[in-house]
Write a structure and sequence with these properties.
The chain is of the alpha/beta class and 386 residues long. It is built from 14 helices and twelve strands. Helix 2 packs parallel to helix 9. The protein binds pyridoxal-5'-phosphate.
Length: 386
């Protein structure tokens, strides 16, 4: 019955019930434990202990599953914990394929944490389907997709990858943090698992850390149950307050996203014409190498993230970032406020990001003000240099 509603309706109504009081907005259940019946058993539908389950967590998980048109959602204390649970569910001796442009800490998980765990990985250009096919090994268990990618906005054709692994045991997981379910529903394209850092667009206000793994009918049962085990027994769970805040944030998700996307598209066109910008990475620009795939895959909603290569070196890029007044020079993304970051200096010596690259998380401010902010920063920085 519930499945008949649009995800935008679920985003508002999908998890606010409090049948015991009739409250329209559910209270925050801080209790870590819940009363048993006289015979020591639990009443039907009651929680036992908050690590295992909690009303606020169940509510937000229900909503998140709806937004991705999934079967179940398993919430974690961070996006990294969610990614960790997927990698860990594969078991030892497996091989994972990751894209060459990827959220830096996902790669660190494989290079640092899994270095001594007999889990191997290789890196390939996922915009090139033949390269992906060639990189598959006999023990490949997972292809990890991140599209558009961080920070170069490379686009992977999800359907092409899921078709490639059809009839094999290889799972396809999408880190859908950047695209969000507003732009892409990976399950419609054949993916087996969806992961989000809910810290970003889903949380939307830069005030909660969280992650989630969403499963579907196509997720193997043993994988789904292991991920749930890692949550409950592993214990990397979000607090009831964070779940409540995320639930509240999701109510406005479908109202925020069109503004993020609209502002990002306008800014991308502005940067493309600007003499101080060498290159703009945004999948909604016809000049993007994968524009056609993006049009189909993102249904003309290209997201709120972009990156630019400014003319000059790392120092010039850092100067542009620090002369902005509205756009804050800070890590992270997906909040209502615009943020800018110089990825190379954040990622450190092993960074593969170009030195003149600035990543921009476009907020929902008035777009004329954002454009004006960049104009004045470019004017200040480039006048000084000439
Ligand atoms: C932020 C981010 C993560 C990690 O999420 P945390 O909540 O910071 O742990 C993973 N993938 C992408 C694409 C991200 O932007």
């Amino acid at each position: 019955m519930e499945h008949l509603y649009h995800p935008a309706t679920h985003a508002i109504h999908g998890g606010n019930q409090d049948d015991s009081t009739g409250a329209v907005i559910s209270p925050i259940n801080l209790s870590t434990t819940f009363q048993r019946a006289n015979d020591g058993t639990f009443l039907e539908g009651r929680d036992i202990y908050t690590r295992a389950s909690n009303p606020n967590r169940r509510q937000v998980e229900t909503k998140l599953a709806h937004l991705e048109k999934g079967k179940d959602a398993i919430a974690f204390a961070s996006g990294q914990a969610a990614t960790f649970s997927i990698f860990h569910s594969l078991g030892q001796g497996k091989h994972i394929l990751i894209p060459n442009d990827i959220y830096y800490n996902t790669r660190l998980l494989l290079t640092e944490v899994y270095a001594h765990w007999n889990v191997r990985f290789s890196v390939c250009d996922m915009t090139d389907i033949e390269e992906v096919e060639a990189a598959i090994q006999p023990d490949t268990a997972l292809i990890w997709i991140e599209t558009p990618s961080n920070p170069q906005l490379k686009v992977t054709d999800i359907q092409a990858i899921t078709s490639l692994v059809q009839g094999t045991n290889i799972l396809v997981a999408c880190d859908n943090t950047w695209a969000t379910p507003y732009c892409i529903n990976p399950f419609d394209l054949g993916a087996h698992l969806v992961m989000h850092s809910t810290t970003k667009f889903l949380g939307g206000h830069s005030d909660i850390l969280g992650g989630v793994v969403i499963t579907s009918e196509k997720t193997p049962e043993n994988i789904a149950s292991k991920i749930r085990q890692f949550q409950i027994i592993g214990g990397g769970v979000p607090s009831p307050f964070d779940c409540w805040l995320l639930n509240r944030s999701l109510s406005t998700f479908y109202a925020r996203m069109p503004i993020h996307c609209g502002n990002a598209l306008r800014l991308a066109h502005f940067f493309e014409q600007h003499p101080n910008v060498e290159k703009v990475n945004y999948p909604g620009l016809p000049s993007h190498e994968s524009f056609r795939i993006s049009q189909r895959q993102m249904q003309d909603k290209f997201g709120g993230m972009l990156s630019i290569l400014v003319k000059g070196d790392a120092e010039t890029a850092l100067a542009v970032a620090s002369h902005l007044h509205i756009v804050k020079h800070a890590t992270s993304l997906g909040g209502v406020e615009s943020l800018i970051e110089h990825r190379q200096s954040v990622e450190g010596i092993h960074s593969v990001s170009p030195p003149n690259l600035l990543r921009i998380s476009v907020g929902i401010e008035n777009c004329d003000d954002l454009i004006h902010d960049f104009e004045q920063s470019f004017d200040t920085v480039y006048q000084k240099n000439t």
